[in-house]
Amino acid sequence: MQIVDLRQIHSRTLEPLFEEEARHWMEELHWDYRPSLELVRKFIDSRALAGYAAMEGRQPAGYGFYVLEEHKGLIGDLFVSTRFSQEQVTEKLLDEMLAAMRAAPRIERVEAQLMPFGATLDPALISQRFRLHTRQFMFLPLEDAQMTPAPLSRGLNLERWSDRVFEPCARLMQLAYADHVDGDINDQYRSEAGAMKFLRNIVILPGCGQFLPDASFVLRPATGDLPIGMVLTSRVADGVGHTTQICVMPGYQGHGLGRRLMEASIEALRARRFRALSLTVTAANATAVRLYETIGFRTIKSFAAGVWEAGGL
User: Fold this and answer.
1) Rounded to whole angstroms, how far apart are CA atoms 256 and 258?
2) Quick check: is 133 in a domain?
3) Do residues 251 and 195 share a domain?
4) Residue 313 lies in a domain
5) Which of 82, 45, 43 lies closest to 62, judged by CA?
6) For the ranges 118-122, 150-154, 203-207, which has the lowest average pLDDT?
């Protein structure tokens, strides 16, 4: 097996992998991954994507890429065909990417949230000293949604998303995820600047499907400017939405506001004739998992979110 730098090949070389990966995303997760893969093709062909491909002769067995930003690295994707020894190829690709990231100046942290198809990635991540957090991919046919709509408390307004709330929603995220497990998984949640990057990736860039402002909402006190809750929704396939972010300000949690936000998003999707909604949640966030289950979501896949930190055990 040969490991090749992605900047030395053309995207056509990996086409069998792209087709297989897109098929897994659609069949297992109801997600049209082709737009994301089209971006990967463009970056590979412009020699702008850092990563590696595993080749068995002329046949591509797997590929992975990563991004470096300031103090951390992020593994963007790692896919290995089921036609090859997945554990072996996964380990080789992961070894190459991590060696390159750890050798980069000032890199103190590496994050990975990788959707495995065919084989678990956990042993390879553990061997590389990653801390793992179980994440659940949950799915809801909208016709099965258990709705219990209730009027909002007096003094709260539910508003559709507007770009005017970028900055206050970044502040909301930073406060909502203080001392939260998801802040360990994604350190963008720990600061307003990081939360702003996250929001822009969701809303402006194609970071997670096509953003749907008509199915995204903020909760705001009638007498204040700072939102106390929000839900963001994107389209990830024909008739399928995905909740990319939902959070409620500490102090307002435990009063049904998260459910009200989810139901507003579901109602908006139904009005647009969507048929399903998905989301991901950290298993340790038991309160959120129970909420989604009472609405009708069911876990259809579990995967690990991993974090490596320099000097960590």
Assistant:
1) 6
2) no
3) yes
4) no
5) 82
6) 150-154
The pLDDT, as a whole number, for residue 200 is 93
Query: Could you tell me whether strands 50-56 and 59-69 are parallel, antiparallel, or unpaired per DSSP bridges?
Result: antiparallel
pTM of the model: 0.94
- List, for residues 107-117, the tens digit of each pLDDT value: 999 999 999 89
146 and 53 inside one domain: no
Enclosing domain of residue 66? 2-128
Tokens 């659609």: give the residue. Answer: 26
| Measured CA distances, 152 to 145, 245, 309 (Å) | 20, 20, 43
| Same-domain status, 271 and 161 | yes
Helix axes 257-271, 286-295, angle to 10 degrees: 40
Query: In whole angstroms, what is the distance from residue 40 CA to residue 60 CA?
Result: 16
Site of tokens 């001392």: 179
Pair of tokens at residue 1:
């097996």
Average pLDDT over residues 272-291: 96
Q: State the Cα–Cα distance between residues 112 and 185, nearest whole angstrom.
A: 8
Mean pLDDT across the stretch 72-97?
94
The SS3 of residue 107 is coil
Same domain, 56 and 150: no
Indicate the average pLDDT of the chain. Answer: 93
Is 120 in the same domain as 78? yes
DSSP 3-state assignment of 15? Answer: helix
Residue with structure tokens 């007096």?
Answer: 154
Residue 311 within any structural domain of the chain? no
